[in-house]
């Protein structure tokens, strides 16, 4: 009986040891599998995070063709839109482009509601005090649009005329210097198309605005009997892409993208599409 009991005891002990080993193995396997799954999930999360594009909010005043206007679906289209999209492609960005209006565009950049402003914005000392600008991407100058019969050859010739401008623009500043601040003959509008329509309706005698915009009106409006006049003494201007003051990281990325599209021919391709020739 003693031997039988001993064998039973040994057998029971052996079974307990085997059971303990199996439980440990199962537990260790579950832990290992869990750690592996967890690691794969983290790697997937990191890969997903790493693959996400930076989303930037872009504002414009979509009433300034050919630089920006509202397309058939009300989304902004034009030269500026194609330029910023080409820069975004270089940098791997995703853009949310919206029409903001002229004055609200500047306010949105101020308040951080938008990251980028692009809307044929002339770089000048006053604006540089509040905003940062990219390297120039377009050379512009002011033109005077008048009836063909008008005897206008220089900017001073409009001083006794009724003149329409888009408020807050360099064209408005130039006209104000000639006519004088507060002159009732100087009419400001929210956008350039409204100023030009005022000329067509003969409620003003001239419009002062950027060259590409007024030339576009002459080509596309279907209205005859009008001309544009360039005063060679008026200082040329340059457009820049605007960001919040101090946002150097974004500004550097914009300049990198702009430099790339100028070097790889994409800029010239876009320029020719809108202006019929490569930039000189």
UniProtKB/TrEMBL annotation:
Give all residue intervals belonging to the Solute-binding protein family 3/N-terminal domain.
55-278
| Signal peptide range in chain numbering | 1-25
Keyword Protein transport recorded:
no
**Which PROSITE patterns does the UniProt entry name for this protein?**
PROKAR_LIPOPROTEIN, SBP_BACTERIAL_3
Q: Which CDD domains match?
A: PBP2_Arg_Lys_His (cd13624)
InterPro entries tied to this protein: SBP_3_CS, Solute-binding_3/MltF_N
Region Disordered: start-end pairs: 31-53
Cell location: Cell envelope
Family annotation (Pfam families)? SBP_bac_3
Biased composition, Low complexity: where in the chain?
32-42
Q: Name one GO cellular component term.
A: cell envelope
Keywords annotated in UniProt:
Signal
> What's the domain of life for this entry?
Bacteria
Family per similarity comment: Belongs to the bacterial solute-binding protein 3 family.
How is this protein named in the record? Basic amino acid ABC transporter substrate-binding protein
């Amino acid at each position: 009986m003693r031997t039988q009991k001993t064998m039973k005891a040994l057998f029971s002990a052996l079974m307990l040891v085997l059971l303990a080993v199996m439980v440990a193995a199962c537990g260790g396997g579950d832990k290992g599998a869990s750690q592996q799954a967890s690691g794969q999930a983290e790697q997937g999360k990191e890969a997903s995070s790493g693959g996400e594009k930076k989303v930037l909010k872009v504002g414009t005043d979509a009433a300034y063709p050919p630089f920006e206007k509202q397309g058939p679906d009300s989304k902004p289209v034009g030269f500026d839109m194609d330029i910023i999209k080409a820069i975004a492609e270089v940098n791997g960005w995703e853009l949310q482009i919206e029409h903001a209006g002229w004055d609200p565009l500047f306010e949105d950049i101020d308040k951080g509601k938008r990251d980028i402003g692009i809307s044929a914005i002339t770089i000048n000392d006053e604006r540089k005090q509040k905003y940062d600008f990219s390297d120039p991407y377009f050379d512009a100058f002011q033109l005077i649009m008048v009836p063909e019969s008008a005897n206008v050859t220089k900017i001073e010739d409009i001083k006794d005329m009724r003149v329409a401008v888009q408020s807050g623009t360099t064209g408005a500043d130039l006209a104000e210097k000639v006519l004088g601040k507060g002159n009732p003959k100087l009419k400001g509008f929210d956008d350039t198309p409204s100023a030009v329509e005022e000329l067509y309706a003969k409620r003003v005698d001239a419009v002062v605005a950027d060259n590409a915009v007024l030339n576009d009106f002459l080509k596309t409006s279907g209205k005859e009997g009008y001309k544009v006049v360039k005063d060679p003494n008026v200082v040329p201007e340059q457009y820049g892409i605007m960001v919040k003051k101090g946002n150097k990281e974004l500004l550097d990325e914009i300049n990198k993208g702009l430099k790339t599209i100028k070097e790889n021919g994409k800029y010239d391709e876009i320029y020719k599409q809108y202006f019929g020739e490569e930039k000189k």
